[in-house]
Amino acid sequence: MIDQNTDGADSRYCLRIPLPESRGEQRADSEDEARRDEEKAVRCAQCGHAVTSPRERIDVQGMHQHTFFNPYGIIFEIGCFREAPGCGYAEPVSEEFSWFPGYSWKIAVCSACGSHLGWLYSAAGKESFHGLILDNLIQPE
Length: 141
Description:
By secondary structure, this protein is mostly beta strands. It folds into 2 domains: 37 residues, no CATH class; 98 residues, Peptide methionine sulfoxide reductase (Metal Binding Protein, Guanine Nucleotide Exchange Factor, Chain A, Beta Complex). It contains 1 helix and 11 strands; from the N terminus they run ββαβββββββββ. The strands form 3 sheets. A 6-stranded antiparallel beta sheet has the order 5-6-10-9-8-7, with no helix packed on it. The chain is globular and about 45 Å long.
């Protein structure tokens, strides 16, 4: 905002720049945003631990959601997520029976309770992603 200088010294203009909010207000806003993100988390159905966020949903092979079966005939409905910081991983990495050609996988578990949540897929020269079992997750409303 530009105001005319009214201190009587001369007729120059001065520029008023609004000061940023105090650090306390900025911190409170950041905490509120973090709390809202936490409330919107995709959670482990077993223990309620925050696993990922809806904004991490991605399409792989043209879709977010896929239905597959493993060699034992067990059917899994999975959703693809870029990041899932609430996951831990079990070794070893495998290339056998990968549902995404060219990708290897390892089991992804809840880092809080150890429940099987899905798989982490990775391939040389490509971004890794998580295929998480939708029945093992609680989606935010």
